[in-house]
Every structure is written in structure tokens, then in C-alpha cells.
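Example 455, ligand nicotinamide-adenine-dinucleotide.
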Amino acid sequence: MKHILCIGAGYVGGPTMAVIADRCPDCKVTVVDINADRIAAWNSGTLPIYEPGLEEVVNRCRGRNLFYSTDIPKGIREADIIFVSVNTPTKTFGAGAGRAADLQFLEKTARSIVEYAENDKIVVEKSTLPVRTAQAMSRILHSNTKNLKFQIISNPEFLAEGTAIRDLENPDRVLIGGMETPEGERAVEEIAAIYAHWVPRERIITTNLWSSELTKLVSNALLAQRVSSVNSISALCEKTEANIDEVTAAAGRDSRIGPKFLKASIGFGGSCFKKDILNLVYLCGHYGLPEVAEYWEQVVRMNDFQARRFVGNMLDAMFNTVADKKIAIFGFAFKADTGDTRESPARAVCVQLLEERARLSIHDPKALGNAKIDLADAGGDISYVDDPYEAARGAHAIAVMTEWNCFKELDYKRIFDSMEKPAFIFDGRNILDHEALYEIGFNVYPIGKKKRTHF
Ligand SMILES: NC(=O)c1ccc[n+]([C@@H]2O[C@H](COP(=O)([O-])OP(=O)(O)OC[C@H]3O[C@@H](n4cnc5c(N)ncnc54)[C@H](O)[C@@H]3O)[C@@H](O)[C@H]2O)c1
């Protein structure tokens, strides 16, 4: 039986390893973390993250060939293959603060491997990392005095939160990068053989290490760029009475453009897009490419602008003041089907509304706990409400921040009747039936489309 260890039991390590255990009954998979509470949650009936389908997969494998533990030394000693899936946030201090990746967690795991390993191993970078990190990783691992040999593999994760299990079970591609040496190629093959249990071979792409590391940053940068491109045009649509949905639907019919990921919104969020683009920006600066750095930085700037613009539209519509007005915030997660709120544009919008002294009533089906943590220091008048009807009662406006399906199914006549008048809806995700809302009596402000008002 192959022993697989994953260091880091987060949004990536947890679901990824559950699917590997599920699809590879001939492997023993252990996931370790320094966070004992997180491990306890993985071992309990209430998993630490919400992801559709995750619970079923974990329940099938946990205790059979999937184990969650805090015993990192034992995990390292027993493992043939170690996936490293620790967090790599943006640095908040020192050189490169606000841009470069903070690699301290990665380096600490490498040093733990050096300390506890007793035989040769394959070490797999699952975290998203700056290109050429594997070189540093290799140097640290080969500083061991036990004459141990390590093969470093890059195998970035492309899952999207909210569809993680679906993405893992049926990935568009699996990318595996290794050293261009016979040992490196053997290690790549060994990792490919794990995925080949359920992923067709033609979807398993193998490259050199540096291409693999860079591809992850580039994939996220291209996706985020698409969001910012559409959002920039949504601003122009609002000025010209063009309709962003019509524009993107027609533009997306060009097979070179394609229809996916062209929806206007208040902007992208999540732990990765912003961090990975900033990392790319930093790398370009580091390698003496300031024009390239600037080009990509604009994607992040456009995203910040879209949230500011959204709040600006709210203020304009609501007679230039929201002070002491109750505003219902529908959704705080950065996207639907997750409780994750990291870098959620909802936070930026809420903070700006609080600065304008609005009273906020926040509702989200899965993310209220994280919302409370995120806004703990924000000050102001905030309530966190489980019932959307209660959140909207007595409010002057509703701001839709997350594209949860359940928001489409609410009784908006009932909501309208309980609100202050004139009642406003700002649909930051363009998910509601704007014509129907207008008919009920709402003043409706979509993104990139004509507003529908009664005055
Ligand atoms: N979240 C996503 O959707 C996503 C998708 C693709 C790639 N990624 C990348 O995957 C990596 C992990 O992301 P995440 O969202 O799972 O992060 P996370 O913060 O949810 O999980 C990381 C875990 O690593 C643990 N950890 C940190 N240092 C450790 C150490 N020395 N020993 C043991 N455990 C340690 C932390 O306690 C934490 O539980 C990041 O590089 C991220 O960019 C994330």
C-alpha cells in the first residue's frame, strides 16, 4: 500500500485527499495539520468547510484509508509521497509586503520533512507558489545530513470552491511538473499513476517544473482578467444603455472567446485570484519586467473599482446618504455554495457602507460565522440574521452580494411590503428577475444594465 501524506488540511488539502482516498483504495492517505481544531473537525460529524458532496466522500473513506491527524512526525516518517498544501498568503510585512507570497509555512513544512524523514520521498507542491519555488524547496530538503534524496513535483490544484468535489472527480486537466531527469520523470509517472485511477490519461498533462508552477498563477490571472474585463465594460453599459448580458452573450458566441466566465458582478473574491495576481505582479517586477507587472496589476485595480462603483451607485440612488438607513446584505460568501468569505467583495462593500454610517443586516445561508469574524473590527451597527425576511424587514435597500440560488426563490412581494419606501434593490450578481421586482414596486439597480425606477 502506498502511503500518501498531505500537510495542510484546508480547503484544498481536505477535499483533494478525500477524493484521492475514495478513488485509490490501494493508498493509505493521511492529512495532517498544526491546527488541532481543524483536524478535530475533520474527524467529527461537522466538517470544517462546506462543500457540496464532500461529506459523502469523507464518510465513505474516513477510518478506511483516509485519516486526519495532528501527528506530523509520524505522518512524515510513514509517507512515500508528501503533498504540501499549506497556505501561501500575500506577505503583510517586510520586502514585497502586499504582493509577494509569504512562504514561511511552506518552508516550515520543508524543514519538518528534513527533520523527520527516514527514507527518500517524493514531495509534491500542491499549494500555489511563485515560479522557481521548487528550487528553494529542493535546497532545503537536500540540506539533510541523512543522505536522503527527494524528488520535487509541482501539481497545482485547479479546483474551484463550491464545486470542489465535482472538479476533483472530473477535472478539466491535472498538471504535473517535474525535473527533466530520469528520476524526475519516474516521480512524475508515480504521481500521474495516482490520478490515472480515475482521470483519463489524455487529461493528465506533464511539463517541466517551472511551467507547472507558473501555469497555476497564469490560469488564475487569466480568469480574474476575464472578470475585470467584463466588469469594466459593465460600467460603460450603465452609461450608454447597452446591456452587459446581451453584449457578453453575443461576444461569447465567438468560439475564440467562448461563453463561460463572462458574467458581470461586484467583482471576484476568494483567497486565490487577488493573491496570485499580486504574486505574478511581484515576480514580474523582480525579473525586471515593470510593464508586464503593471498590465496585470490593473486587473486587481479594476476589481477594487467595481466594488467602490457599486457603493457609489447605491449612494447616488438613495439621495446621497445611507446614514442611519438599514440595508440588508444578501450574501457574504465570495461565491455561492461555499461558506468561505476570504477576500469577498461583500466585505469591501460592507466596510464602505459602514463608513457612510449605514446600519447593516447581513444574511447568508452558510457564511454568517465567517462574516462575523471578518467584520469584527469594522465597528458600526451590524446584525447577523439567519432569516432573509427578517434581514430585510424595515430596510431601505437590499444589496445582493452572493449568487446563492435561494435568493432567487424568496417572496419579494412579502419582502417589499415589510421595507421602508421607496425600496431599493441593488443586484450585485444580476441573479434576480429585475422586471418582476420592478412590477412589485422596487427600484432596481442591476450591474451593467438599465436601472428600473419609479421616479
Ligand atoms: N482555496 C482554494 O480554492 C484553492 C484552490 C487552488 C489552490 N489553492 C492553494 O492551495 C494552498 C492552500 O489553500 P487553502 O485554501 O487550502 O488554505 P487553508 O488556509 O484553508 O489551509 C492551509 C492549512 O495549512 C495548515 N498549515 C500551515 N502551516 C502548516 C505546517 N507547517 N504544518 C502543517 N499544517 C500547516 C494551516 O493550519 C491550514 O489549515 C494555497 O497555496 C492556495 O493558494 C487554493
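Summary: The two ends are 71 Å apart (CA to CA).
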